[in-house]
Amino acid sequence: WPFRLIGRPLITAIKLCNWLGHSGSGSTLLGYIGIDTIIEQMRKKTMKAGFDFNIMIVGHSGLGKSTLVNTLFKSQVSRWSSGWGGEHKIPKTVEIKAVSHVIEEGGVKMKLTVIDTPGFGDQINNENCWDPISKYINEQYEKFLKEEVNIARKKRIPDTRVHCCLYFISPTGHSLRQLDIEFMKHLSRVVNIIPVIAKSDTMTPDEKNEFKHRVRKELETHGIEYYPQNEFDDDMEDKNENDKIREAMPFAVVGSDKEFQVNGKRVLGRKTAWGVVEVENPNHCEFALLRDFLIRSHLQDLKEVTHNIHYETYRARRLNDNGGLHPISANNTQESNL
Ligand code: GDP
Ligand code: MG
């Protein structure tokens, strides 16, 4: 009987080897398994599900925020786009408005939403003027959380969480305003902040570089962690790539929704005393750099940091407040005061 015990599996194994050996070219037990097809499987699933990507824009009136949104949609991004819809209004001192475009390229669908926040910091008393913005951000976390803790939860939860917040800095050439510092300090703990220098065509290249340098120094002095945050670099490769980006920040952008004829091509630009500043020309300003950073290189990471760090922090606090025991009711209309 010892043979029966050892023999059966042995025979089965030999049979299996033979079968593998005869099936397909060169397949052995240690041969091709097909793990690399996981990437293709993931790609297919992701393509079907589509993406949500939500950018928020903050800064005081007149800094060119709405123009930059239009620029974003009029530039390469929206040459793929088709149609738009959706609007979100909060009747408060700050009116927050979300505009969505569904963009499709190479079979991949992305719903790009830009949340514009007009009027930030325009009041005489700007104390706590970031409250409506932080409320909006937290409301989106709350919405997601409610969907997540639902017993019959959706297969795919619609994601309205703010994946990044572009903070517009006035091109004064001097320094950051107290309000800039306060805002970024408060909000960098709840959302990915990306500071940008607005209307950079109003500065000379030297002024611009000096200002960028000064802003970086000030952010460092005040301990403001903007995206991509040092502490979330995954490995050396990540760190090297992100170091380069951090050294180039804040991006000095120019927005425009007007087209000009340059060398026989129609380009988005602004007419200045020196000629036409081409918005999408990396030699003229850093709009294209910002756009590529947001969409081509860091979109997935922005979403991951939002989910794994910012949302996780919110979720942990919220469930803790709840005693960590009872799920939040889906019909619970009470708002979080976090
Ligand atoms: P918002 O209040 O921040 O939304 O600013 P708007 O987008 O409404 O722009 C305010 C004004 O600034 C408009 O007259 C724009 O044409 C102008 N503007 C927008 N972007 C730029 C820019 O990059 N450079 C310059 N020089 N002017 C700009
Ligand atoms: Mg505006």
Folded structure, characterized:
With 338 residues, this protein is of the alpha/beta class. 42% of the residues lie in helices and 18% in strands. The protein has ten helices and ten strands. The protein has helices spanning 2-22, 37-49, 65-74, 76-79, 131-149, 178-187, 205-221, 236-248, 287-297, 299-321; strands spanning 51-58, 81-85, 97-105, 108-116, 164-169, 193-197, 251-252, 259-262, 265-272, 275-278. Strands 2-3-4-1-5-6-7 form a seven-stranded mixed sheet, with helices on both faces. Strand 8 (259-262) and strand 9 form a beta hairpin. Helix 9 packs across helix 10 (299-321). The radius of gyration is 25 Å and the shape is globular. The chain starts with a helix and ends in a 17-residue tail after the last helix. Mean pLDDT is 82; it is low at 1-7, 78-94 and 332-338. Bound molecules: guanosine-5'-diphosphate and magnesium ion. The site of magnesium ion has 4 residues, from helix 3.
What's the gist of this structure?
The chain is an alpha/beta fold and 338 residues long. The chain is 42% helix and 18% strand.
Helical amount? 40-55%
Our Rg estimate from Cα atoms comes to: 25 Å
Helix run count: 10
Taken as a percent bin, the fraction of beta residues is 15-25%
Placed side by side, the strands forming the largest sheet appear as: 2-3-4-1-5-6-7
Mean pLDDT: 82
Q: Top keywords for this entry?
A:
338 residues; alpha/beta; seven-stranded mixed sheet; three-stranded antiparallel sheet; 10 helices; 18% strand; globular; disordered N terminus; disordered C terminus; binds guanosine-5'-diphosphate; binds magnesium ion; G_SEPTIN_dom; Septin; GTP-binding; Neuronal-specific septin-3; cytoplasm
